[in-house]
Design brief:
This protein is of the alpha+beta class and 70 residues long. The protein has two helices and seven strands, in the order ββααβββββ. It has a five-stranded mixed β-sheet with strand order 1-7-6-3-4, with no helix packed on it.
């Protein structure tokens, strides 16, 4: 599993935006589809809300990529 640590300078980042920002998804459309299809785990649980607020300390998993937000 590839682990990525991503720093944000705001209070939160939306789930689909994080996937694109961290490079886990090539496009916003790919990120949107992945979330809507239930392919993304937010803190270990499937999340289908693309606008889910991801905050520092949260972990998002998509395929073999695990993103930790700091």
């Amino acid at each position: 599993m590839k682990k990525i640590e991503t720093a944000i300078t705001t209070e939160f980042i939306k789930l689909d935006s994080l996937l694109k920002f961290a490079g886990a998804a090539e496009t916003g459309g790919e990120a949107k589809e992945a979330v809507q299809n239930g392919e993304v785990l937010y803190n270990g649980e499937v999340c289908t809300m693309r606008g889910k607020k991801v905050r520092p300390g949260d972990t998002v998993t998509y395929g073999d990529i695990q993103i930790t937000v700091r």
